[in-house]
Amino acid sequence: MQPSSPDLGTVVSVRGSVVDIRFDGPLPSIHNILHAEQGRIVVEVLTQRDAHHVRAIALTPTQGLARGMPVQDTGGPLKAPVGKTILSRMFDVFGQAIDRQPAPLDVQWRSVHRAPVALARRSTRSEVFETGIKVIDVLLPLERGGKAGLFGGAGVGKTVLLTEMIHNMVGHQEGVSIFCGIGERCREGEELYRDMLAAGVLPHMVMVFGQMNEPPGSRFRVGHAALTMAEYFRDDEHRDVLLLIDNIFRFIQAGAEVSGLMGQMPSRLGYQPTMGTELSGLEERIANTDSGAITSIQAVYVPADDFTDPAAVHTFSHLSASMVLSRKRASEGLYPAIDPLQSSSKMATPGIVGERHYALAQEIRRTLAQYAQLKDIIAMLGLEQLSPEDRNVVGRARRLERFLTQPFFTTEQFTGMPGKLVSLEDALSGCERILRDEFKDVPESALYMIGKIDEALVKQAANHHEP
Questions:
Q1: N or C: which end of the chain has fewer CB within 10 A?
Q2: Tens digits of per-residue pLDDT, 420-441?
Q3: 154 known ligand binder
Q4: Is there a binding annotation on residue 155?
């Protein structure tokens, strides 16, 4: 069958999600979207193989696609809807609403492939972004317009911490939150939608999902679609945007699948040879300009808890703060399970957070590090064998660990404990008072899962009155 018009091609071969198409006329450009079966099957051109053939990756399942079928070139790239009316809505990678409501009216469609902001237009101010979560604000302050990563294996609380941050930020700030689900579970998207609706923050949010069950091409592009929406709010509406990505590892994984299907030789540990450039293409678009900022918090799944995995290493290099969630802390019930000794933030310098905050954070780290060294001795010989000074260090460290836990709003229905938001000043003075031994005689358990430090005294008094 010969195609009748110059922008029609013919399917030559289909291998899973990869489709080879022959065009007798001019070849479609790279990133162009092609439709088959009246738009039921959508593919994106990734390479031009020779004068007549292109190789494309499918963004939809390819069932039913056969050799010889006609393919229509749409003449343009994948586009995402932008505008005020996309707020409080849920979209897929094609910008179609997936929340069972009519499509939003009055939207513009923009290409998802955009260049990062020019260096001359970037803002270079360093401001701290308060989250209301003690351990983050005190030890790993986040940067407004920066990128923070939540690193952890499966089931240590990345998504819970992300949802808590959305809850805290949208409550405080007049910004817009964009949640981008890349290759995560459908259940999480649906639960997040209901939670945000119940919390009343949905009017300030946009959600974009490319779930686990979708083809790799779709998971590979959904991050670009979300970024295009974020750039609209930053550049056109001059608003601050909080971009939450769950999970950036799945973007790298989708790229590896696409690369394997395209027939490229894998590099170390089976990842695609172009992983660095693909990740940079996404991450470098997250930036501050003089008119607005995109602050990004990204969950990063760490395969088999191995932080030397290339996916984790490449992601680390883009971040201004990395929060490492530890399975050991989670098993001890110390939530949020952030390991303060492994985590770091480039904002924790005296020039940005101030002398007092910096000195306090350093002293907290030192105390926790000394306790970590003494743990082996305690396990073998018992606490009694330590010198009095070391015993004091252990007491302070254990109280600090308990004080840096916090009940979350998003887990109220499971724990029965009301969520707490703690200002930076309250968190700092609490840590300071513990380090000055003011709470030496207060039992450790009274400091566990509280907000401000004074709640410990109330808790202690309540325990005393119980028979």
A1: C
A2: 999 999 999 999 999 999 999 9
A3: yes
A4: yes
